[in-house]
Amino acid sequence: MDEDDVSVLVASLLRGDRRALARLITLVENRPRLRDRIMSLIYPYTGNAYVIGITGSPGSGKSTLVDKLTGELRTRGKTVGIIAIDPTSPFTGGAILGDRIRMLSKSTDEGVFIRSMSTRGSLGGLSRAAYDAIALLDAFGKDFVIVETVGTGQAEVDIVDAAYTSIVVVTPDMGDEIQAIKAGILEIADIFVVNKADLENVEATVMALQMMLDLSDKGDWRPPIIKTVATKGVGIKELLDAIERHRAYICETDRIEKMHYKRSKVRILEIVRSKLMDKLIRELENSGELDRIVKCVVEKKMDPYSAADEILRKLDKK
Amino acid sequence: MEEEKKIRVIIAKPGLDGHDRGAKIVARALRDAGMEVIYMGLRNTPEQIVETAIQEDVDVIGLSILSGAHMALVPRVLELLKENGVEDKIVLVGGIIPKVDEEKLKEMGVAEIFGPGTPTDKIVEFIRQRVGEIRKR
Ligand SMILES: Nc1nc2c(ncn2[C@@H]2O[C@H](COP(=O)(O)OP(=O)(O)OP(=O)(O)O)[C@@H](O)[C@H]2O)c(=O)[nH]1
Ligand SMILES: [Mg+2]
User: Fold this and answer.
1) Record: contact A25-B86, CB cut-off 8 A
2) Are B34 and A93 in contact (CB under 8 A)?
3) For A153-211, how does the pLDDT look when each residue is reduced to its tens digit (9 = 90+)?
4) Distance from the CA of B44 to the center of ligand 1, in angstroms?
5) Pick the CATH number of B8-136 from 3.40.640.10, 3.40.50.2300, 3.30.450.20, 3.40.50.280
6) What is the ipTM of this complex?
7) Is the Cβ–Cβ distance between A110 and A142 less than 8 Å?
8) How many angstroms separate the CA of residue B113 from the nearest CA in chain A?
9) Are residue A50 and residue A177 in the same domain, yes or no?
10) Which of A12, A74, A132, B64 is deepest in the core (most CB within 10 A)?
11) What would the mean pLDDT of A93-104 be, rounded to a whole number?
12) Residue of A60, A64, A117, A228 to mutate, ligand 1, most atoms within 8 A of C-beta
């Protein structure tokens, strides 16, 4: 696989070949050098897909919601790309990616492309490859890209940098957990879904959310709270309508441009940071410099902060 | 420096038989061996399995079949793989398969068949070796 093969694959993707799309996602996930080339070829064709993020506790019904939401989008004539992210086992690096089980009926729909990814090294966050996969689905021509992430820690917050509309799913059986919903989540939610509305305590859950929203200051968009029974498809139309309202809201002023500016900046800096770190670490390892400095710290000849400063001084010299 | 590409495997259960205990055990063993396992649950059609294999760009398709319908289901999967130009995937079958059928399935393109109670280490080893060979090419 070299740069010429990559160009051929990209051309196939742009012609609508889903096998090329699948191969390219694999490459951006695994081959940093080819990834750079792929992304620069793809970039001019991106910017048309509307990206929706869905997060929430394990088992809250995210995948079932994605499945039903996709069905509703398809009825409205839209094509859909789905990225379902599950955590990588920190011990073995392996993962079981089980979100597709809830989306089986969509796997043979030509207007839908589903890809499962694991978080890999990104500490529970959105793996960097997920951003690239979104861009590939966008260039492939999907009208909507839906990203499902597990609601544990960093991923919830990360998803905001990828999605235009972020949905947080809660369930009535969360009980007191609702009260404990972290401020961070409250801030990222553009829409709240109370799923499993067929269970008890739905109204109490909605009330708890309302109260939290009353206390928070989210500007002039107050996140709506949508009740759903994902398994039965109840509330899905209302959810999609809420998404469309939010979309209209961010598009009506220059909000979306500001979002693009901020996100592009974050992404560029993220890439610079990781490339710089890779390069620096490689150089330090190869020259034996890192080993020398670590030993100094171990032998108490230097403290870790001074050690880091010494490394940074080398950067200055360049 | 290129990272090593993770081995990706689908575990699917075509056919109508009811439980997936065995499939789950294998899925966990493969995860514990560092692989990414796309778990498809029960009652998958050959069409769903092949389309999933394409979209997920997997190296291996593991089919767990207890229903005895293997001579209908497995050839259909192989046929669809060919039709879609993705016959490079390694197809493994787990379950109770009579010796005569075993030979036939292998002739058709199944890489290996694992009977009930096969130690999971053996499956892990087989996958690693086969994927290694293919990637070297
Ligand atoms: N009672 C009820 N059960 C539901 C509803 N929606 C989903 N479920 C069930 O909840 C379980 C989990 O659903 P998923 O869609 O897999 O949830 P998830 O949030 O994607 O789960 P993870 O990806 O594992 O975190 C399944 O057994 C669903 O059938 C609902 O509205 N009501
Ligand atoms: Mg899920």
Assistant:
1) no
2) yes
3) 555 556 667 899 999 999 997 766 666 666 666 778 899 999 999 998 899 989 988 88
4) 19
5) 3.40.50.280
6) 0.93
7) no
8) 22
9) yes
10) B64
11) 92
12) A64
